[in-house]
Amino acid sequence: MSVIHRVIKAILYPNPMNNAKGKYLARTSKHTTYNIRETCESLKNKSGSVNVDAMEYHVKLFFEEMTELLEDGNKINTGYFTAQAHVRGSFDSKADQYDSERHSVQIVFSTGHLIRQRAAQLKAEILRIASKNYGFWSVTDAQTKFNTDKLIMNRLLVIRGEKIKITGDDPTAGLYLIHTESGAEHHFPASALYQNGNAILMLIVPELATGSYQLKIITQYAGKGTPLTQARSCVYANLLYAD
Known about the structure:
There is one protein chain. This protein is an alpha+beta fold. The protein has two domains: 6-92 and 99-125, Irregular (HU Protein, Chain A), CATH 4.10.520; 133-242, Coagulation Factor XIII, Chain A, domain 1. Helices cover 16% and strands 36% of the residues. It contains three helices and 15 strands. Helix 1 crosses helix 2.
């Protein structure tokens, strides 16, 4: 019996690794992050018969109970994911006690068999090859290593692209987070970035007002050779959100 495959849309980007010249990487075209309520609302939009408030309440109740079970040392297996508390760090002897300076407790999640089965039925449709000239490829949360559209205070945001390094003596050069509702601009010059490179920018997210933000750079970077006479700008295709 043939398997019905679901299709996930992806875009090809040049592989930035030095030993991968001429190769491409595929990244999904959507980066929206859904919280619990937004997931419940998505189901309601499909079926129309879901009580969003009740569903959100019971999902949160489930996760709260799950967290307490994990804190007691139990393992969770929902089929969609497994989770378990792990004690990290080395103990010097049998009499050694837990020391928060040397040890930590982490909750580790792994993909469950139901998700793995669903993932095996996915296929990718390549929409297009992204421009090799210059521009943004992706925005990633350094902690989760996943593409994101969330702006979380004090988290390291990893911005990848081509020729996105911030250079030049133009006073407007820098990375911008522009609050779409108010138009307020947060300007980060090159000196304010955690990393400033041709293919990668890193920014520690400051405290931001709630709402959606446009990510933009202004730079005179031209790659090798003489900087551009006039600064150019580039805008990320997707909005970012601060809660």
